[in-house]
Design goal:
Length: about 270
Amino acid sequence: MKFLSYYSILIFCTLFLSCSKNGTIAPPDPCAGITVVVNGTVTSTSGPGIIDGSIQATASGATGITFSLNGGAFQPSGTFIGLAAGVYTITAKSSGGCTGTGSFTIAVGDPCSGKLITISSANTGTDKCLSTGTITITATGSTGFTFKLNAGGTYQASNILTNVPSGNHTVFIKDGTGCEKTQAVTINVLPNGPLFQNVRTLITAKCAGCHMFGAVNGGATFDADCSIVNLKLRIKARAVDASEMPQGAPLTANEKKILSDWLAAGGLTTN
């Protein structure tokens, strides 16, 4: 009778309960038949390097749920904010200790989404010999703008780009969340100004034999406009200050004034 009773217990345990090898009855698993499912809504970051992503997690299949992010402390709310782009694991735990997990990926969002940013610009043109162009940029549709010239440039707070050479350029603007926009700009060479034109006429009249039309004296030639600009301090020292040029016929006071007025205005072809 005892033999039959022992095996009757084993059969009962096998069919209905969890039992140890010696036939004692083990406590039932409180999570048997319970499946905690974790779902959620993910919000991407506002842009590269911005840490403002979020996950709104929910759980079903049990009651008294609390939530943990990446193994951290459990909290009643399934909302996790201020997250960087990346992969996260959220664990949901019921009041009975049953758990379930979900994996969520926060992407880098488009910083320009929902924005209508417009760019306009104005430029001054440039002297042919030196990079004197300026570009003034106006941007609307967002805040925190910074500005740069061409892809290899450095962003700056000022919307005025200076020392721009002639040619085709691309201006870049970027707002506080990293939304970047561009605009093509062409810097034209400005015509010669009246002061420089007077200097050019004077040098052609006084220096043609030694420094123009292919003639080179002392390493100096004034055939090109930029040669005159680049050698302006040498011209001043020889023709104005020392009266050594041109040879044999120093400049008159009025002729020296032509040079002095041009130099005082900046010594550029645009003056």
